[in-house]
Amino acid sequence: MISVMRHLVWSVVFALIAGSTCAAVKRKPTPDSVQTFAAGATPTTLPCTFSFANDKLQYNLCPLLHRHKGHKETSDGDKTVEVDLRPIKIRIVEETPPTRTISVYSIGLRSALDWNGTLPAELQCPKGTWICLIVENIRPSHPSEPKRRLQVIPVAGAPNLAPRAQLGKRKIPETNDTETIVQYLIHGGSYTNRPQMVYFQFICDAHSKEPSEPTYLWRWNGTHTFEWKSRHACREASRITTTAPEATEVPSPGGSDDAEDPIAEPPQVPEEVPEHVRPHPVLVLGIVVGTILHVLTPFQFPCLSLTR
């Protein structure tokens, strides 16, 4: 009888383990609120139009990501888009007595940043970098001293830009309500063996003066976050898309229409942990029960151990 009970218990344990393993490897469908692009691709321009089928929305961020300045009329009467080829410069100044720390982001959205052949390689981001952060400091009490370059951080660049667009949620500070925003991530950087990425929060602002530019929010754990308010991020303004030359519109995959925000404020890690690599609770329970039975059986039933 004891032997039968033992076999019955072990059968239940193995059944639990097998069932939980099947459940663990079942992948969550790709949500409709996420669009990813080829991880190894090096686009000549960043993808800038996105369609989210379940929401029946199309977003056109080409005027922002492709640096449109406006329109000019050609000699034959046609209108063409004027483009600003200069990188965006964002400067952050922090008082760090006895020094002053200056962080400067150079953001190239149309192509990689220019390489300065007269500057030592260790003082600039490597070739192929699209977004670079330079951190320097000075001593205000010694104005004749040169700046000291503390960090050179390639935030995003070829060949692994892997641009990703997704819908997310943002709390409105004034009302504590939430609104839908477009999250745009660009990868490819690395600093001290830690992957880097830039994260743009595109926020609807129907009264923004265009062309608008991003503002710095925070930097933590390799994620560099910017807020970009623009009328081009509004749902109403984005229903009609005008794809710029070389840009492609990619239909989003099917799936859930829940807009989940995987980008967390520090100190939480922004990247999601895929569900299929998380330990399933039933699997953990089965392993624990099986281990306990295996260890305790010789002590509870010593005669069984002696008769083997």
From TrEMBL:
<dbReference type="InterPro" id="IPR018939">
    <property type="entry name" value="Autophagy-rel_prot_27"/>
</dbReference>
<feature type="signal peptide">
    <location>
        <begin position="1"/>
        <end position="23"/>
    </location>
</feature>
<dbReference type="InterPro" id="IPR009011">
    <property type="entry name" value="Man6P_isomerase_rcpt-bd_dom_sf"/>
</dbReference>
<protein>
    <recommendedName>
        <fullName>Autophagy-related protein 27</fullName>
    </recommendedName>
</protein>
<dbReference type="GO" id="GO:0016020">
    <property type="term" value="C:membrane"/>
</dbReference>
<keyword id="KW-0472">Membrane</keyword>
<keyword id="KW-0732">Signal</keyword>
<keyword id="KW-0812">Transmembrane</keyword>
<keyword id="KW-1133">Transmembrane helix</keyword>
<dbReference type="Pfam" id="PF09451">
    <property type="entry name" value="ATG27"/>
</dbReference>
<feature type="region of interest" description="Disordered">
    <location>
        <begin position="240"/>
        <end position="275"/>
    </location>
</feature>
